[in-house]
Amino acid sequence: MMLNRIIYISIIFSTILFADIKVVNKSTSKDFLVKTLKGEKKIYVSTRDLVSALSSRLYENLERKKLVLYISGKRIKISSGTSFLIIDDIPYQMIDIVHEYNGDFYLPAENFFNILKETTLPGIFFDERRKILNIDVVRYNVKSLDIKQKTNGTIIRIKTQKSFSDRDISSFINKHGWFYLTIVGGLVDTSALNKTITRGIIHRVESDQINQTAQIALKLRSEVISHEWYQNQEPSEIVITLRTALNNNVSNIKKVKERWRLDTIILDAGHGGKDPGTSGKYGTKEKDLVLDITKRVGRLLEKNTGIKVVYTRTEDIFIPLWKRTKIANEAGGKLFVSIHINSNPNRKIKGFETYLYSSSYSAEAIEVASRENSVIEFEEKKINYEKLSMERKITATMASSMFLKESEALAAIIQEELDKRLTIPNRGVKQAGFYVLSGASMPCVLIEGGFVSNPSEEKNLKSPAYRKKIADGIYRAIIKFKSSREKLLAEE
Ligand SMILES: [Zn+2]
Predict the structure, then answer these.
(1) Are strands 142-150 and 132-135 parallel, antiparallel or unpaired?
(2) What angle do CA 107, 109, 112 make, to 5 degrees?
(3) How far away, in angstroms, is 373 Cα from ligand 1 center?
(4) Distance, CA 130 to ligand 1 centroid (Å)?
């Protein structure tokens, strides 16, 4: 077993600057300086300096290129040259790798602090631009934002912890199409707000903490004819209404609906050609099983629905992973379904499971993902990964947050439908960092339809009638998912 085989760009430190980050620790009222390395557009912080600034402990094994930090009762393992952190045995993946320099480890600052904030120290706040890390028990009073699209405008609800004086709130629209709301005395959870799923005329949400003032900026897609806001008490919130001309909006909604209509689906039979995938004791190969199941799903869709089916392969040929997502994106796919068969050294294990793409996941999931990702070994043009990996991972994170909900819904229906038809255990919906799912800009899932390593499952999988059952389940799930999504669109 090996970790994720994505090949990372090695950052060239064009300029090595020791521009320090100031760590302001309110509880000890002592300031620290933390050394940084500056890579391309990013800064990396010194682990040693950070440890003293956080008054935490450190255990090192430089020979094995490993460090263990103890922060707030959590054990954080860091290895140089990888992008993984293990926090209390749970792996987290950063967008970039840990660099070793002068006997010290340098962590990608923003990314590391985000993970630290989510897992260990909720009270930290890192301002990359001003190079300040604030450590405090922060209590945000501007917590989240929600956007609702109506036929004649957009309603935005900002959840707050308390009522503000109306005099402290102001709003305006600038000539570049940004709507601004400022709240004096507001302490905004920028990471929550900046993750808001945008819709309707809101193109982007950017929130900022400027001293004692929270600023929320909304980039508008089209002109608004009026804007106003008011405060609610129960629940405590600020409601903004942005009115748009009716016609413009109807056509916008139409466009949005068009974009969401499930008219094209990508079916991806895993492996193929020189990459056989896993195989069973009796020689059954994953690549053959999944091609057959995939074709069955495709035929059902083509025969019974108007959905256009695009296959990444219909023969026993080798298709690199990057090409699979390229095919999917270029075909304008609205759903990506990758079909695989699992294997485990423990031959007793059986069952089916469905995966979503995620950048943080369990150790067991890493094992499955590393096996599926290991196909990259077979690919001649590895250069594609080196060039793409950074950009891909960033888009992957964004895309997966946008499509995660949909992928989750589909995965749940697939498990339900397979459960109705198969007698093997339902192993549920899981998350892992499958490369093949990371680049598709559409909801995507990866199905592991059974364990070919289990002799009785292998026997089943060899039977066309059994493979038909799996295909039926996947097909049914896609139909159900499509109709539930269309119902939602009709309600808008
Ligand atoms: Zn596979």
Answers:
(1) unpaired
(2) 75
(3) 8
(4) 46
Q: Which two tokens stand for residue 429?
A: 């919906």
- Give percent of the chain above pLDDT 70: 78
CA of 281 to the centre of ligand 1 (A): 16
The DSSP annotation for 358-417 comes to -SB--HHHHHHHHHHHGGGGG-S-THHHHHHHHHHHHHHHHHHHHHHHHHHHHHHHHHHH
User: 212 C-alpha to center of ligand 1: Å?
Assistant: 52
Distance between CA atoms of 206 and 332, rounded to whole angstroms?
29
Name the H helices within 155-237: 190-193
Token code pair at residue 362: 């369990």
CB-based contact 192:122 (threshold 8 Å): no
- The total number of residues shown for the chain amounts to 492
- Measured in Å, residue 167 CA sits from the centre of ligand 1 at 60
The residue with greater pLDDT, 18 or 182, is 182
| Strands 99-101 vs 90-93: parallel, antiparallel or unpaired | unpaired
Q: How far is the CA of 394 from the centre of ligand 1 (A)?
A: 24
Rounded distance from Cα 370 to ligand 1 centre (Å): 10
**What is the CB neighbour count within 10 angstroms for residue 156?**
24
Centre of ligand 1 from the C-alpha of residue 271, in Å: 6
pTM for this model (two decimals) = 0.49
Kindly give the pairing relationship between strand 426-432 and strand 352-357.
parallel
Average pLDDT estimate for 136-151 = 79
Instruction: Using only the alpha carbons of the chain, give its radius of gyration.
Output: 25
What's the CA-to-centroid distance between 291 and ligand 1, angstroms?
A: 11
The pLDDT value given to residue 12: 36
| Distance from the alpha carbon of residue 460 to the mean position of ligand 1, in angstroms | 18
